[in-house]
């Protein structure tokens, strides 16, 4: 059952009555799911519950104004809305609560997110776009409060791009930019900076966004007086109200229990946003939270008797029921009978969901118990294996941990035996792990045919007339080719538009392609990322520019919690192939030193991290990624734009492969591994080392994530028998990751005649000025002496101690 999204003012009374009762049915169904869901947690069948009770009626009104092609970016209490648009049923609600890993049973996340985190499927099983205009869409929720806000901005901005930029294929994505992005948030979370940053950006950009604030006066146990100035978010946002000659928001207020006024308010908001592309804030007040924040505690602990009595009286479902009776739409007896039927439907749906979840587990349990019976019969350790088998068999509601843990422990008792049953057990464990592990681990990166790893290298070509030019011209002309080839491509960031970025890598692009495709953005890194995520989720190919690598920290939470996990948390059913452009490495000072690579890299697994040594390599990465369906961070060398590079003849066509290292100098004595601007220092040191008879081989990593997929570094180590990683990051930062990849995954330790070394920056960020860099990060002399010391230890007679 779902709500009627087409509100018709000419409905007959009978039709109107049917629609109202349909809405009431949804409201009561959602409430019963919340009530029964809490019981399932408290009885141990589910681990945790957070529900949408108390928010049912405004979500019904929102669903009526929500059309095909629209997108929701909400938070974890929107279950009634999802039911109302037909994207969530009773069985699916409970499947999410139980963590069912079958995508057919639990289409929101296949058990990867806790219940209450909703999404729709934008992609088919092969990673291809569905027709988003033929469905109602919800971007995948995340738990961090206000984390849904930046993405909302991009989802709304996509409509503006589709409405005003010509040449884009909009077939599956937009109908003339008429789609609205709908955001929801709890009143307490409006205290987060991400909320304010997004509200400001939406007012500046004038995008079709409707933002609902569900206001129940509390944030867990903390009252609004500790959350919000004046205890009223719409009051303090009055300055955003649009006026005759000034852009801004339309700000609306409505009581969350007033069914007819809610419908009217949401229809008005939708019309403004859809037709005028003006953002709207709807402050939905006087809501309740009947079961408190979550199953972790009771709201009776922090609400007094007067508040609890008020909540019982002004519960939106109670008020809706009273309104139905007062308007002669149904009698009390009619509604009581309906409620009784709904309760049974929810109980039956819960039972069906539990059966769907538990039946495969019981089957797997029985299969292992039978196998252990045969293993036990053939083993001298029968008594111990029988105990494991019997303990497993007695578990009435097994989980997969119980099953696999038992099998692995049983294997220990037959490790010295040679029976056929031991081999069966070993094969069972391997097969079970291979089958089950992907249910929890797949789709961190794209598994489609458009994965960036499938795109082959195309080398840059040169002619006799190829000139040495400032490297910025290579990247600029390559962007020109990208924007010409891909009408859906656009770039935005601080200073990216009018002046063509701070290093002139976009010189002239705004004049050529317009302000919507090459645009300036305010100083608001989190929402720059959010713009990119939302637009990429709607079929555009955005490049979000963060001016310097150091400023990535402002956007790191969004990158880590939202973008990096998107394919994973939807099990491959949503994607956002956003390219994040930034620059860093080897500049002066604390704030432009690019010294946080290890931290960034470890926090954004799910996003490729690319560190090209020059602009030609960087341009090749952009060309590769534009043909893929994955997000990536590209860190250009900040001190490389004015260096000379030859201009390729195949601009826009050459491609740098991901995960492939490059040997840029051959040698036989030691393998030196590095990336980015530090490579130029390593190259100079290698020249000086050669003068004293040390021949170093230099490998450019190029791609930190993925890392050396062909295992070429170990081949070099097998030749030189020595390894050093040189990194401008802090000790134990990216260098620890690099060393782990080479030693642990590539097993390079087998070939080493000397201890593997790392040479990193100091633990602090560089002091300002050239001397700050010299005394803070690896210098030519540092590299020379570190390598020389390795050779001294190996051959002290040829390389006497330096100092």
Automatic annotation (TrEMBL):
It is an enzyme of class 1 (oxidoreductase). This is 3-methyl-2-oxobutanoate dehydrogenase (2-methylpropanoyl-transferring). Its EC number is 1.2.4.4. It comes from Bizionia sediminis. Residues 469-643 form the Transketolase-like pyrimidine-binding domain. Pfam families: E1_dh, Transket_pyr, Transketolase_C. Keywords: Oxidoreductase, Thiamine pyrophosphate. It comes from the Bacteria. The keyword Heme does not apply. E1 component of the 2-oxoglutarate dehydrogenase (OGDH) complex which catalyzes the decarboxylation of 2-oxoglutarate, the first step in the conversion of 2-oxoglutarate to succinyl-CoA and CO(2). Its cofactor is thiamine diphosphate. InterPro entries: DH_E1, THDP-binding, Transketo_C/PFOR_II, Transketolase-like_Pyr-bd, Transketolase_C.
